[in-house]
Amino acid sequence: MIPDIFAPLLGQPQAIELLTQAFKQDRIAPAYLFVGRDGVGKTLAAKCFVQLLLYVETQNITTLQNRLRQGNHPDLWWVEPTYQYQGQRLTAAEAAEKKLKRKAPPVIRLEQIREISEFLSRPPWEAPRNVVVVESAQTMAEAAANALLKTLEEPGKATIILIAPSPESILPTLVSRCQRIPFYPLDTHCLTQVLTQTGHEAILTNHALLNMAAGSPGSAIASYEQLQAIPESLLLEVTKRPSSYRPALELAKKIAQDLDTEAQLWLVDYLQQSYWQQWHQSGIIHQLEQTRKSLLCYAQPRLVWECTFIAMVTHFRVSL
């Protein structure tokens, strides 16, 4: 008898029921699409489901869990978006460990999809099937997505799990070949429970972070960690009302120098929440939305922030 491996997954009863029944009825689909906003449990659900898919009755479930945690199971291939750096592929965690300044988000690359095809070309060694998990499937370029489509058409003795924020974020042809498993934002009770269990009670008193999280404990935790990584002096300056142009220009320079692009994009979200709570000025929120669009278009960050803060100074002077 397999223990309740989905116990750590809170607030997603529909997903748990769909996956559990598929296993109990021996109706495992060749491919699944886990969809929902980031941080609500999609990756955790995939890890739990992988345990079911790779489980063999003669094997101790604890032993299996330990092997999966160590990443040494021969029948599992887990794919994450990567950066290209000096001829190496680095995950987001590896890039952060090396303190690389990143200008663009990581992506799933064509060569990673080819590695999936190579992995699936051989039968499983120990488990009933091979299992492939692709995190952030929406980051695939068209060539990589088309290559994966060919694999989905003939997966062999395997199950492929794609994780994405929405069906619209990936090719419709990929969506049509997957069984969709929806994930939803957590209610206040489950969100509080997750943050408490993971030792992040401090987040519960930060209304800006909770508003940004919108029912996603993973997003709340990621935002909290990002908040801790920003120098306190910089955060204090940037959350105050800008009073004149010269300090605003100096602040723009500091942000561009001290924070990479991902941190700057997060700061836009945080400032929208913080500024709205302080001043309830919709014009400032719209200005920050333009800041986000400009950063995503790889405009020069210092110039983007200079324009942002100059517009804010002007806005406050006019509104007073």
TrEMBL record:
Its EC number is 2.7.7.7. The gene is holB. GO terms for biological process: DNA-templated DNA replication. It comes from Anabaenopsis elenkinii CCIBt3563. The keyword Calcium does not apply. Keywords: Nucleotidyltransferase, Transferase. One of its GO terms (molecular function) is 3'-5' exonuclease activity. This is DNA polymerase III subunit delta. SUPFAM superfamilies: P-loop containing nucleoside triphosphate hydrolases.
